[in-house]
Amino acid sequence: MSSPRIAFLASSAAPAQQALAELTARYGQWQPEQADVLCPLGGDGFMLQTLHRHGDLGLPVFGLKLGTVGFLMNQHRPEDDLCQRLAGGQPAHLHPLEMTAFTAGGEQVSERAYNDVSMLRQTRQAAHIGIDLNGQERLPELVGDGVLVASPAGSTAYNYSAHGPVLPLGSQTIALTPLAAYRPRRWRGAILKANTVVRFRVLDPVKRPVSVTADSHETRDVLQVTIVQSQRHVSLLFDPEHNLEERILNEQFLS
């Protein structure tokens, strides 16, 4: 069996650049468009950059942790045979969130998010946001710092720090989580079916402007944002002993 054609992609961090030189010398290097598998070297931030840039290629992705945070990455073990690890990798299928935003300037912006889409106040004034699900108003007015929608893979990131639920991978759910809600004070969010169409309406955009961020892509002065989970997916590969599903499960038992 021939070795896979690997496209190594590295962050600017020194350890990632050093690993890039060593790995390409050992396994060769292919452009993403000609490769069988993508191998980003870095942290979770660089993994998300890789998915945004090359996710449409439909290639499996095997990340190696050479950054600060590596929840979506595998351990970098230079002594191991990478081709054998790739052959034994277990896939985790991630369905990104598709976001469409309309701004006060008349723009329509579409972005994809593998972790979360978050609405955040732009000033010291609390945001006032209405929430509709599948075209039906569910919360007339949320007052607070904002609100987010997270995928299962992203539920352990910003969503978790905002006291949102950790969602099992493959659960066909998404998390709707308020950010420092002032009213209604006892509302802690909701777990929704993955095919739910979520719409946020900014109720006072002049006095209380709001921005939206899809992963790291920010759009300011939004009036309305619609979010739905994509039918398309990307496949991340993980070593069997430390796959993503097990990591997410472990997060639910951390104190």
UniProtKB/TrEMBL annotation:
The active site is at 44 (proton acceptor). InterPro entries: ATP-NAD_kinase_N (IPR017438), ATP-NAD_kinase_PpnK-typ_C (IPR017437), NAD/diacylglycerol_kinase_sf (IPR016064), NADK (IPR002504). Keywords: ATP-binding, Cytoplasm, Kinase, NAD, NADP, Nucleotide-binding, Transferase. The keyword NAD applies. Its main location: cytoplasm. Its EC number is 2.7.1.23. It catalyses: NAD(+) + ATP = ADP + NADP(+) + H(+). Belongs to the NAD kinase family. Involved in the regulation of the intracellular balance of NAD and NADP, and is a key enzyme in the biosynthesis of NADP. Catalyzes specifically the phosphorylation on 2'-hydroxyl of the adenosine moiety of NAD to yield NADP. NCBIfam families: PRK04761.1. This is NAD kinase. It comes from Stenotrophomonas koreensis.
